[in-house]
Amino acid sequence: MANTRKKTINTDSYKRVVEENKVLDEILEKLKNKYDFPVDNLLEVGTGLGNFLTKFLVDSERTKDIGKFYAMEPVDEFFEESKRHVVRLSRTDAVTQEFFGGNPFDVITFSMVYNHIKPDQKKKFLKNIKNNFKDEGKLVVFDMFLPEYDDEDHKKEIEKEFLRAHIDYFKNHEGEYLMNYFTNVLKGVHEDFWVGKYKTSLKDFTKMLKKVGFENIEVEHHKGEGKADWEKMGYHIITAEKK
Questions:
Q1: Which of 72, 234, 50, 60 is nearest to 142 (CA)?
Q2: Which residue has the higher pLDDT, 127 or 12?
Q3: Among the listed residues 16, 17, 50, the one whose alpha carbon sits nearest the alpha carbon of residue 196
Q4: Are 33 and 98 a contacting pair, CB within 8 Å?
Q5: pLDDT tens digit string along 208-224?
Q6: What is the pLDDT of residues 19-62, one digit of tens each?
Q7: Is residue 29 packed enough to be buried (19+ CB in 10 Å), middle (13-18) or exposed (0-12)?
Q8: Is residue 171 within 8 Å of 165, Cβ to Cβ?
Q9: Nearest to 115 by CA among 204, 229, 9
Q10: Could you say which of 40, 104, 163, 224 would form a disulfide bridge with 134 (CB–CB 3.0 to 4.6 Å)?
Q11: What is the pTM of this model?
């Protein structure tokens, strides 16, 4: 789970946000079932701290399959963290590079990446990913998407509701650090370095998937165990296949 911006990142703060958000553990359990094993090779785009693949391998008792797992991370600080956990790791940037080392892949996944991609680069990002699949390869995505909005002004209000929903959730679930994190984003104290600066709606994301050539798109809206406004929080798991 990472962004693809080449700038200074506070990895300690990022790590704490990831570790203390227990919703991610719930989603990880669901994501495990989305991988159709056995596969010859799997790629994670934007591996961040390397924690997702590590947890997936260890928790799934698939450490023997570690040679089948590849990861890409272009952000320097995250790359240094990831290389402690991921064997086949490269600095490849999926926005600028059409073909990735190790391709073609059976499964490509990314988590908490799409909202860090600039709007004019989102199509290129998805198109490059599609180019690296085997026939009938599977895309597995976890990200947070906004409800549908009418225009940019409406989007700004939707984003505020998104942040408030997270503040309320973590306030009620002993998540003081995360509550303060989202409060500071809402106040403009710092950017949303975790979810991403360039948020989009689920409708726009699935529309873009179709535009670049994915089909059989399935969407699961995650509603966790705790009381929350899950619609506004926008946790989703999406799978799709290359045409």
A1: 234
A2: 127
A3: 17
A4: no
A5: 999 999 999 999 999 98
A6: 888 898 888 878 776 665 566 788 899 988 876 666 665 556 66
A7: exposed
A8: no
A9: 204
A10: 104
A11: 0.89
Cβ proximity of 48 and 82 under 8 Å: yes
Cis, bond preceding 104 (omega within 30 deg of 0) = yes
Residue 123 DSSP SS3: helix
CB 142 within 8 A of CB 237: yes
Report how far apart, in Å, the C-alpha atoms of 68 and of each of 39, 40, 135, 136 are.
Answer: 8, 6, 18, 18
Q: How far apart are the first and last CA of the chain?
A: 26
Tell me how far CA of residue 233 lies from CA of 94, 116, 223, 228, 229, in angstroms: 27, 17, 9, 8, 6
Round to whole Å and give the CA distance between 108 and 35.
Answer: 10
Q: 135 near 186, Cβ under 8 Å? A: no
Provide the angle, in degrees to the nearest 10, between the axes of the packed helices 51-59 and 23-32. Answer: 60
Q: Where are the alpha helices (DSSP H) in the chain?
A: 11-20, 23-32, 51-59, 76-82, 122-130, 152-172, 176-187, 202-212, 230-233
Q: Which residues, 6+ apart, have CB-to-CB distance to 83 below 8 Å?
A: 50, 89
- 21/221 Cα distance (integer angstroms): 17
